[in-house]
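Example 3.2
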Amino acid sequence: MTESGNVPRREVIAAVLNYLTTRVVSYLPMKDEEGQGLAEYALILALIAIVAIVALIFLGNQISDKLSVVGHEL
């Protein structure tokens, strides 16, 4: 503390960063085999999402036309 009783700005910033870092690290998973499995599932899910998006981009109009025909027939 300074003579006026104020805590220097650097100390406050350091304390806040330390607190936030501690909080964020507490939510991170421990480094073990489960984390590896979770990462693999995330990669598979991302790959499936990319394939679905690409399929919708290329086949979207054709699918929309077919569904419109079926809707009009009903």
